[in-house]
């Protein structure tokens, strides 16, 4: 599958360009003329976010990591300011940081400073298509993905949600990204380990749970969040939750917007492992290293075969995603977003045609 062509947009309102790293191309979102337009800096104005740790032997915390982050795995250093030479042009990415480790392990860090790594226009797109680059790289043997700072990801950025509810072109672009995110993770041949701490919601939760091995801290807070917003639980929920924890538990947490701790998520089978906060990254890195050192054909072919369970659920996922995005055209999502911003209970419509 190729990336969508985001040009040739014909909006009826003022346009805002969210600049994404080439070759992703510009993404145009349409907003009310009264709203302040925010331009995200281009990759040329920001430092590279690549760290090469394959030959380092240092311990401790990365210098650019907040104190509230889990400790950096052994071998991490500060960014060197050069693209990653693993068949990937990482200068195209701004919302994701990359650290290279021995044994072909690529560490991806979700980064949206000051916003708990919420998935804005840029991050949502990068999370959808980074897996294609990883799959094509001959050097990457395993992936570890985590969030920077106090959590994995707080979910969809409010501005992104508002843009989706206002403009058809933005809505359909994000729909395609959401679809491609799930299928690209499923079809990525390299094994993926997720390290979950703090809030884990929305697109971040999709990547975390679709990973081949998921490790969560006991105090992590997992939440789908869609029904509280006023849209159907699309994204990843219908394709993976019933397989992981059973249909009854999936309905309980998805319909009622009920969060789970990392400990409860492990108990019901939603995540693979639950560990103490201090053990999260060391354990996740150890798992990634074991996968990277295993027979690549054995691991990748086993993953491919097992993921046929997910491919078989593709029609269910496609339906859930279509219904979710249909909901973005209705009144409940606007009320849900307003209530979240105002920190109050929502007042949804009482009747529905279905």
Describe it for me?
This protein has a single domain, classed as 2-enoyl-CoA Hydratase, Chain A, domain 1 (Alpha-Beta Complex), CATH 3.90.226. It is built from 13 helices and 13 strands. The strands form 3 sheets. The chain has a 7-stranded mixed beta sheet with strand order 3-4-5-6-8-10-13, with helices on both faces. Strands 7-9-11-12 form a 4-stranded mixed beta sheet. Helix 2 crosses helix 3 and helix 3 packs antiparallel against helix 12. The longest helix has 20 residues. The relative contact order is 0.12. The N terminus is likely disordered.
How is the secondary structure organized here?
Blueprint: E1 14-18, E2 27-31, E3 50-52, E4 96-101, E5 105-110, H1 121-136, E6 142-147, E7 153-154, H2 158-166, H3 168-187, E8 192-196, E9 199-201, H4 202-210, E10 213-217, E11 221-223, H5 226-229, H6 237-245, H7 247-255, E12 260-261, H8 262-268, E13 273-275, H9 280-293, H10 296-306, H11 308-312, H12 314-327, H13 331-342
Parallel strand pairs: 3-4, 5-6, 6-8, 7-9, 8-10, 9-11, 10-13
Antiparallel strand pairs: 1-2, 4-5, 11-12
């Amino acid at each position: 599958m190729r990336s969508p062509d985001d040009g040739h947009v014909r909006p009826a309102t003022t346009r805002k360009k969210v600049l994404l790293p080439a070759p992703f191309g510009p993404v145009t979102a349409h907003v009310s003329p009264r709203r302040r337009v925010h331009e995200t800096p281009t990759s040329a104005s920001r430092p590279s976010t690549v760290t090469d740790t394959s030959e380092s032997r240092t311990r401790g915390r990365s210098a650019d990591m907040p104190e509230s982050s889990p400790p950096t795995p052994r071998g991490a250093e500060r960014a060197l300011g050069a693209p990653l030479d693993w068949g990937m042009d990482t200068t195209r990415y701004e919302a994701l940081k990359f650290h290279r480790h021995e044994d072909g392990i690529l560490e991806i860090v979700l980064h949206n400073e000051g916003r708990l790594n919420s998935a804005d226009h840029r991050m949502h797109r990068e999370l959808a298509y980074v897996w294609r680059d990883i799959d094509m790289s001959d050097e990457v043997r395993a992936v570890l993905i985590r969030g920077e700072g106090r959590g994995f990801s707080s979910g969809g950025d409010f501005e992104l949600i508002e843009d989706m509810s206002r403009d058809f072109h933005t809505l359909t672009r994000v729909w395609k990204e959401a679809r491609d995110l799930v299928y690209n993770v499923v079809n990525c041949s390299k094994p993926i380990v997720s390290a979950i701490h703090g809030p884990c919601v929305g697109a971040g939760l999709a990547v975390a749970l679709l990973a081949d091995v998921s490790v969560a801290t006991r105090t992590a807070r997992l939440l789908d969040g869609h029904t509280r917003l006023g849209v159907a639980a699309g994204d990843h929920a219908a394709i993976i939750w019933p397989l992981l924890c059973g249909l009854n538990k999936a309905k309980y947490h998805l319909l009622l917007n009920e969060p789970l701790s990392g400990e409860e998520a492990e108990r019901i089978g939603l995540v693979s492992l639950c560990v103490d906060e201090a053990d999260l990254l060391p354990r996740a890195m150890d798992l990634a290293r074991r996968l990277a050192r295993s027979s690549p054909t054995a691991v990748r072919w086993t993953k491919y075969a097992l993921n046929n369970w997910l491919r078989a659920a593709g029609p269910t996922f496609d339906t859930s995603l279509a219904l979710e995005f249909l909901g973005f055209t209705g009144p409940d999502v606007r009320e849900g977003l307003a209530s979240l911003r105002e920190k109050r209970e929502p007042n949804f419509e009482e009747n529905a045609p279905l």
